[in-house]
Each structure stands twice: as C-alpha cells, then as structure tokens.
C-alpha cells in the first residue's frame, strides 16, 4: 500500500478529489522529517511518522498560525511544532551532523 493510500485510509477518504493536496502534504512532511533527522531519504521505519504528521497537517488546513479556535461552544487547540511522541520518535532517527574540523598545530 502506498503512503497516499495509507493516508487516505486513516482520513476516511475514498475518492481521488484530494489526491494532489494529500501528495503535497506528504512531500512537505517528508522534507520536514529529513531536515529534522539530517537524512537524505526516508527509511521504511519513518513512514508511520510521515502519516501521523500528514494527518496533523491535513487537520490544520485553514487554521495555520492559530493556536486555538472556538466555535459554537466547541474549542480546539493545537500544539506548536511536532507533538512530544513524534519528537521523541524523530530523535531516534536523527543523524549527527559532522562538520569539517581542522586542528591547528603549533
């Protein structure tokens, strides 16, 4: 099953009307994960995290920049950045960045 099919299944989407949007979200999330982990490509073990983050991004559509919203007595609030469980999982995939280090001999 492809990532877009998994995402659609988790979101309860059966048609193809939102495929372009969902693909764009998956690509954006992939970039965020790679930047956060200092990697060049996602591993298969990272795919569930990509789906979790994509669901969060999908659900935040139209409310970017807001921390909470209240309508008709129903309130909703959002976490800045990734939720703690996702942050913890990303740390396990993080690669350290090595920079050029030259020692000066006297």
Question: What would you note in describing this structure?
Answer:
It is a single chain. With 106 residues, the protein is mainly alpha-helical. It is built from 4 helices and 2 strands. It has a domain at 3-61 and 82-93. It has a two-stranded antiparallel ribbon with strand order 1-2. The protein starts with a helix and ends in a 13-residue tail after the last helix.
Number of strands: 2
Strand content: 5-15%
Report low-confidence residues grouped into runs of 5 or more.
Answer: none
Helix content: 40-55%
Largest sheet: 2 strands, antiparallel
Q: Secondary-structure element sequence?
A: HHHEEH
List keywords for this structure.
48% helix, mainly alpha, 8% strand, two-stranded antiparallel ribbon, 4 helices, 106 residues, globular
In short:
The protein is mostly helical.
